[in-house]
Amino acid sequence: MDAEHSENIVYGRNAVLELLQQKPESIEKIYFQFNTSHPKLKEIVITARRLKLVSGKARLEKLSLIAGTTKHQGVCALISSVTYYSLEEVLATPRNTFPLLVVLQGLDDPHNIGAIIRTAEAVAADAVVLVEGKGSPVNAVVHKASAGALSHMRICKVKSLVRALELLHQCNVQVLAADMEAELNYTDADMKKSTAIVLGMEGSGIAPEALQFCDHVVRIPMAGCVESLNVSVTAGVLLYEAMRQRLA
Which PANTHER family match (predicted)? Predict the structure, then answer.
């Protein structure tokens, strides 16, 4: 018999498969055992990959620890406690007269995601946009790093970064990114108008397919020896510049 789900964990082959079929958007990550020879485990793995959900292999001991029981049948799904909004919803009911959004391409460090959500809430941004199946799930570490801001900030999940940027353009939202090679200083970009700040992955930066949708690429001057800022610090600099311009 398959186990029922607890508040944030679903375990057992039938239970996880049903969740994948009925509410895949609620899944943050799926853990499955190294040996996936069971037909239903194979189906779960194939379905998760097709839906581009974050998944990973785990030893039976870790699965038991996550599920809180040894009756997990080789699979556990972490369920988000976050209510996700669509990008269309946020743009239809903006917090600001001229919306301000942060788009995260796929950050792997949950501390960075939490810090960005905290800063976005501090400047009263409209939403933080995440790409489904990319980067770290919105887990307990993100909650803690956001220092409670996650409860107040609207979080969007989109299936495609490119389609999200296309929608922003259609809604007259300018797309802005940061790059140390850019010529435009970040203080010279007009952020009083509707703006979406796109932040790339740690290390590799913004993907080329995303850059082609950017209306402006700005530079944050560096006077010291380091080449770049941490992505959450970059977010803070740009978001507070947007707030400074809007208050002025």
Answer: 23S RRNA (GUANOSINE-2'-O-)-METHYLTRANSFERASE RLMB
pLDDT digits (tens, 9 = 90+) for 142-171: 888 999 898 899 999 898 999 999 999 999
Instruction: For 9-79, give the CATH class.
Output: alpha beta
pLDDT tens sequence across 25-57: 778 889 999 888 899 999 999 999 888 788 889
Q: In what order do the strands lie in the sheet with 27-33?
A: 9-11, 75-79, 27-33, 55-58
Residue ranges of the chain that CATH labels 3.30.1330.30:
9-79
Encoding tokens for residue 189?
Answer: 């970009």
pTM: 0.75
Q: Which CATH architecture has domain 84-247?
A: 3-Layer(aba) Sandwich (3.40)
Both tokens of 200, joined, read 């790339």
- Quick one: 95 exposed, middle or buried, by C-beta within 10 A (0-12, 13-18, 19+)? middle
168 vs 145: CA distance, rounded Å: 28
